[in-house]
Specification:
349 residues; alpha/beta; 2 domains; three-stranded mixed sheet; disordered C terminus; DUF7869
């Protein structure tokens, strides 16, 4: 051991006692070999790029609790954004007319500007730390069509009169306010169900007599994307042209005890996602796993063929008429913003 290392150990022992030492760079995610200006330029580029191409999608991306998520198109990847960043850095000293043909003016650096080009690995690390709210859209992500149309109108309103600009902004703000109102109502129901379950001492789903507890409980249900089996991402030759067997998944989530029952439905049993199938699954859930509440709140999406139809309303009315529930309230999420506990849990499982 060198004298310098021995002195450092003695100094650490005198100041901190017999505790393990930690390196000064441990826990740092942003590459420390880059200067502050390099990190700042990457941050500004990603922010400007998102302002130009991304759409706002509040509360729709799992693992994010921010109000506004900027969602890039599905054709964009972090590697693609890095290549455009690199191209902008390399072309920054050339003629402006040449630059305008390659990149948007919102993503360019000043003319004659020369700086270090950050590698792709460091670019991704900086992105994850300083701009985690900018997310690349996955191919099967459910995007709100109303948000898409409103944002497209906002992008094309550069040369329009101020009155029309204000009208388009107001239309988008009203839509987002409606989404936030419905989301807050959903969260209040979830919070109330958890408090009721704690007061009643209910810890898990199980067999309970219908309408045996004079309390309110909240449930949400949703269909997940169909699974195919056998499933092999490599697609070997013998099964390349074969049609896989389909497996439907419906999840019913009880918000009070935060437990969910997933129904795995083979295509030999039912191949459609109509109202009859949904009613059968929900009826079986209440009969086998219900908590015996007298008043129920149900949250689902606006699909007219499954949930928002007369057959579903007749079924809920029949439950109340037979004394299985005293009251049932059916709530619908805003179209395109239908993420709830059942859809998120099914997607992860």
């Amino acid at each position: 051991m060198s004298r310098k290392k021995l002195s450092a150990l003695q100094k650490h022992y005198r100041e901190n006692g017999c505790t393990p030492r930690s390196h000064g760079n441990s826990g740092r995610v942003v590459p420390h070999h880059l200067s502050y200006d390099d990190n700042t330029r990457v941050k500004h580029f990603i922010s400007n790029y998102a302002e130009t191409y991304a759409i706002l999608l509040p509360g729709r991306i799992p693992r994010f609790k921010r109000d506004d998520i900027k969602l890039l198109p599905s054709c964009e990847t972090k590697g693609n954004v890095w290549r455009k960043y690199k191209q902008a850095m390399e072309l920054s000293g050339k003629n402006k007319s040449t630059l305008s043909k390659n990149l948007s003016s919102d993503c360019l650096f000043p003319l004659g500007f020369h700086a270090r080009v950050v590698a792709q690995t460091a670019f991704r690390k900086i992105w994850n730390v300083v701009c985690p709210f900018v997310v690349c859209c996955k191919p099967m992500l459910d995007v709100c069509w109303q948000c898409k149309k409103n944002n497209s109108l906002l992008y094309k309103s550069a040369n329009l009169p101020d009155a029309e600009k204000q009208d388009r902004c107001k239309r988008q703000q009203e839509h987002l306010a409606n989404v936030a109102l419905e989301r807050s109502f959903y969260r209040e129901l979830v919070k109330g169900s958890k408090e009721t379950a704690e007061q009643q001492g209910v810890m898990h789903l199980g067999l309970n007599n219908p309408c045996s507890r004079p309390v309110e409980m909240h449930y949400s249900f949703d269909f997940a994307q169909q699974m195919h089996f056998p499933s092999d991402p490599m697609q070997p030759g013998p099964i390349y042209f074969l049609r896989p067997r389909k497996l439907g998944i419906l999840g019913v989530h009880c918000e009070g005890v935060t437990q969910q029952v997933n129904y795995l439905v083979d295509e030999s049993v039912v191949i459609s996602k109509g109202s009859s199938a949904v009613i059968s699954f929900v009826h079986h859930f209440f009969r086998q796993y219900g908590l015996g509440e007298s008043n129920a709140h149900l949250h689902c999406d606006n699909c007219s063929g499954q949930n928002k139809n007369r057959f579903r309303l007749w079924y809920l009315l029949w439950r109340c008429s037979c004394g299985l529930h005293r009251s049932i309230q059916l709530h619908f999420m805003v179209v395109g913003h239908t993420a709830c506990s059942s859809s998120g849990t099914v997607a992860h499982k």
